[in-house]
Amino acid sequence: MLGKLKKILGIEGVKINLLVPQKIDLEKEMISGTVVLTSIRKDIVEKIRVKLTEKYTRGRRSAKKTDEYVIGEIELIGPFEVMANEEKTIEFELRFLNAKSEMDKMEDDNIASKLFAKFAKWTKGVKSTYHMDAEAFVKGTKLNPVSSIELLE
Question: Which CATH number is 2-97+130-142+144-148 given?
Answer without folding.
Answer: 2.60.40
